[in-house]
Design goal:
247 residues; Glycerol-3-phosphate (1)-acyltransferase; 7 strands; alpha/beta; globular
């Protein structure tokens, strides 16, 4: 007896033109902003960051114009820009890597070293005080994350970490790596959990972007002083799974 495929069929309209326009505009504007950042490498970090953030704002706006994809945020009252924190967020698409720079305070993102292989774009990330780690050397990566992450936090710069380590499918949460929680344990800075459903509209392997509203929820700060990394990780992962199910 032949087994039928019970996978749900996506009947949403396919926005090929809007998705193509968005791709072209992201590619071209990223090249321009990369050149600008290199030309202005001598500027203070705060100004370089504002330039990069303005590009993220542009991309989020273009996503709405070309693809009809916007977002709404719940929990902004949990953000105090004056108090640096560690952001632990689920990871489903490229959208959150840009949008979280728009939504949240000045931040340093933890990146895999392979991103530096991208000409111009990857190199520009170094001008934004990114924390670049080699995932093939776990001990060295953790040591660098703790050292540079604590340094950024002490400077008042937030640290953005996607503890899953790679993009998950829509409605899926992959097991968390311990790095972000260990940084929280060692530094004593609080964790801000963030969850979103961007994968429902901008999935990890799809060229197409679908119209709709991405939901982003920012949780209350989680105090980490005197706590162990596994406990911190479990609390954040559980919260993200529960909130994602509600979206």
């Amino acid at each position: 007896m032949t087994q039928q495929n019970s996978s749900p069929v996506d009947n949403r309209p396919k926005n090929y033109i809007g998705s193509a326009l968005l791709f072209i505009c992201i590619f071209s504007t990223a090249t321009i902003i990369g050149l600008v950042l290199f030309a202005l490498f001598w500027l203070p970090f705060e100004l370089r960051y504002k330039i990069a953030r303005s590009w993220c704002v542009l991309v989020v706006w273009m996503t709405k114009i070309f693809c009809g994809l916007s977002y709404e945020v719940e929990g902004l009252e949990n953000i105090n820009p004056e108090n640096a924190a560690i952001i632990l967020s689920n990871h489903q698409s490229a959208w959150e890597t840009l949008a979280l720079r728009v939504i949240l305070p000045t931040q340093s993102a933890v990146l895999k070293k392979e991103l530096l292989y991208l000409p111009l774009w990857g190199w520009a990330l170094l001008l934004l005080k990114s924390i670049v780690i080699d995932r093939s050397n776990q001990r060295g990566a953790l040591k660098k994350l703790i050292s540079e992450g604590t340094e950024r936090l002490n400077e008042g710069i937030w640290v953005l970490i996607f503890p899953e380590g790679t993009r998950a499918g829509a409605r899926e949460v992959l097991p968390f790596n311990a790095g972000g929680a260990i940084l929280a344990q060692k530094s004593g800075f609080p964790v801000i959990p963030v969850v979103h459903n961007a994968g429902d509209f901008w999935s990890r392997y799809s060229f197409l972007k679908y119209a709709g509203t991405i939901k982003v929820k920012i949780g209350a700060p989680i105090e980490t002083t005197g706590r162990k990394a596994p406990d911190i990780n479990t609390e954040v992962e559980t919260w993200i799974k529960q909130e994602l199910e509600k979206m």
